[in-house]
Amino acid sequence: MSEPGDPIPISALQHWCYCPRQCALIHVEQVFAENLYTLRGQAVHKQVDQPGVETRAGLRVERALPVWSDRLGLIGKADVVEFETDGTPYPVEYKHGARDKAAWIAACDDLQLAAQALCLEEMTGKHVPAGALFYAKSKRRREVRIDAEQRRRVAEAAAAVRLLLDTAVLPAPTFDRRCEKCSLRDICQPTAHPVVSGLFDSGD
Description:
Number of helices: 6
Radius of gyration: 17 Å
């Protein structure tokens, strides 16, 4: 559990977006478990987890770049940041799976990328209008505009995660489509809760 005022890991925003209970289990209860999907994610990130700098096609490219925002109280690491000739950053977050993810999962990926973009803005003083998500299975990027809506979502998510960490209250479980791929399903035991037992929703 973090102390009040500690910076929030950007990954916590993505976890919260996916499922607040999952976020609390990881960042408050300090529990985690691996499954096929988390292991695939780790394999993808091995490509960019080693810090380094290179130049290609006129861009300065930095891998595993630490990022932070004092204003939002966030800290994390950007997989890849491409710097244009004027110093404008363009974050690229690597994800396993295909580019055509369900919209509700893609929205969580977008949130994580937008948080990196806002950190880079504060660090560099440069406006960051866009970034991209690279999906390993498709081997393609999907560009994300860092617009007013994305900025609002980051601020709201950061505030929600801060409240979750400060109160240290574990949200009640739900039992829906999110549980299918969650590595913490056995720890969470959503079906053991009488309110949600039998309510599984497998639709998108």
